[in-house]
Amino acid sequence: MNKKHILHLYWRAGFGLLPKQLDNLSGKSKEEVVEELFLKSAKITPLHISTSSIDIFSKDALDESRDLRLEYNKLNASLMKNYSHRWMDRLVNTNETLREKMTLFWANHFSAKNGRIKYVKNFNNTLRKHALGDFRKFVKAISKDAVMIQFLNLHQNNKSKPNENFARELMELFTLGVGHYSELDVKECARAFSGYKNNFEGEFVFSTYQHDKGMKTFLGEKGAFEGDQIIDIILKQKQCARFICEKIYGYFVNENINNSHIHLMTEVFYKDYNIENLMRYVFKSDWFYNKENIGVKIKSPIELLVGMCRVIPLRFNKTEELIKIQTILNQRLLYPPDVAGWKGGKNWINTNSILVRVKLPSMILERESFTIQPKGNFTDQFKLVYVKNKYQEKLNVSVDWKTYKKQVKKIASNDLLFALVLCEINLGTQNYLKTLGKLTKKKNLAKIMSLPEYQMC
Amino acid sequence: MDRRKFLKNSALASSVFFVPSFLKAFENVDLSSYGYNKLVVIQLSGGNDGLNTIVPYRNDLYYKARPKIAIAKNEVIKLNDEVGLHKKLLPLKRLYDQGDLSIINNVGYPSPNRSHSRSSAIWHTASDSNKHLQSGWIGRYLDVYGKYAHQAIEIDDNLSIMLKGEVHNGIATRNPSFLYKGLHESNFNKILAYQNSRHLNEHNLGYLYKTMIDAKSSATYLHEKTQNYTSTQNYPTKNPLANQLKTIAQFINSGINTKVYYANLVGFDTHAGQVNTQDRLLDIYANSVAAFVKDLKRNNSFKNTLILTFSEFGRRVKQNAGNGTDHGTANNVFVIGKNLKKQGLYNDLASLSDLDANGDIKYEIDFRTIYATILNKWLKVDDKKILNTSFKHLDFI
Fold it and tell me: Could you tell me if A444 lies within 8 Å of chain B, comparing CB atoms?
């Protein structure tokens, strides 16, 4: 398999490759390389965190005491931060690359959030468990997950007073897309999902008392439907398969949808709604490796950060700082903006975020250069006034340069550049790179990573 | 964006931004050709419950539909014998008394969509409910009448579709000097020094370079123009909207050539436990707007500023089981400014006995007639070029 194609595959199905990893794979066939990705992700390794510090709190005790509730919330908040850091570490260090990349994708598809670590841990592992599995089981599991039940007010959806929030988003954002159902379908769907609750531990509870057992008319079918049956009816619509394929295509292939490719994918997915089969089909398709699909995607902040950490091992010594970086870049793990998730693509980029992205590598790798020394000919034109702000603090990061040096030893400048930058490099930037000397030098890593080209994958 | 438009735009970038003294270009902008009027748009995101904001406190149907969350008669700030303001909107009552507030009721659009993202996109792009536009009404205003990214500023880290045009984009920034400092702290200027417009393409990578160029020129301009101005107005603290409005006042009072500002207050999606949440948010809204208006008046810039407040939809008339309300349709819009033609209540509240099939309020005024009116009468441009349809003009300004 051609090296460019391997890199492309590993950027979309993972977070890139180092020059030596690329060399090791380049002798293999496409079949072998793709199957290896799936083989490595066959196992499901849940992401754990010990919640023993909050397990001692009972629901009754919390209901009674405000102080206890405050303490409980504080412990939850701190565990949430640790969990988000663990997730980041997982993304950087895992060998189950595809499963983790898919988990990240689904976390933005079934976009939901909650402040209770136990719920969030279960939800995160539900996403991981089904990431390459059966989409039908996946949607049903999500509809019974405490984070989703709470986030879309499903627990308040009762026989006498329906709450349509979940019913609407289930169809609009999770399965069919706007325009493929009526307002009546929303109402009937909400009735079918009435009685969905979760207990204090986050387990699903079905309240037959609050469930509307009456007849419903949904997408043309009549019956005394419950939630699972509604999901089955939704999945009967080919539009559901198509909607998911479009979303997967936009994320893994190209944000510009190619209808003939979508048609092919939909035929594959509609058969059994098996996500693994769909992804295998995509990664083995010739069109996946078309030139117009390579290096044209703008990395999400998490892709950018994880990709950097896979090139140069580094550790954020303060979890708060890692979260701050994610927040500045507009993608904080575990906290999607709303039920529609992050929009991605050009939406990651604006005048602010491009500045931070260009600056990020030196913030992390060259802390010493971070006291502001205005350079160049601007000094004589402008009076420089600097106000100390939160972005100028130094980060407490341990950078493992030793391992990096070992990695790039005997690697030519061009080979390093080839492995790190997937898209064609702008002519002006090529000239700029010529001024830097040997690119494998320590001081040049941040410079390569600050290029607009490095933002692409 | 099509290739031809993009290249044309890039050619502009090269001639303006890559000459050594590119900053000079800004000094030549003829403000008078655009007029001095500014527009500030505030979105109450999540769908503010308009019925508990402008309250029909004599209507039994209102109290019947909302046994647990209605605003009690004795808590309403009365505007007339029928209509009152939410109890937290006292600062707005003062604006109302001074004739600086116009309340437009029952604003919406045909075939209402009850999804946040969709309805928000409809308001941002000024599209029909069944059409998906990729550009916002302010973005298209920049396409036709703007020159620079900073002529429309969103006080945030992310640029909303409202400020994205087919060719031009506004910019998003939380702070007037942060962008500028960033230029010097990194490789930013060095990378740009090696570029020229011929290297830009219309794809994502070209977009990154173009954004860098826009960032550099606008960051420099905003920093230069605002650094000598400090506000003396006190704003409410720990208030997310007040911070944004304070920054906008700083921009406006520094005399920069920005035409449109966009601020956003989130959290109005009150499916459960509505009363406390809406109390807190309307308190934040009213107090920050009051401080903002004071600040503008003190600097004699209120007369040139129009403040438009909207929400992507109102909420259902009937409350739900969680003492909240679900997504609804038509809602009220606030217009704040000096010399309003029609002060106070622009029109009557909607009937609560004549609802649509979903039990929602029927819209009376298309929100795009408000946009058309503001574009035409306030920003003094051809609204048809921006909205692509001829909408009726209203007479609130």
Answer: no
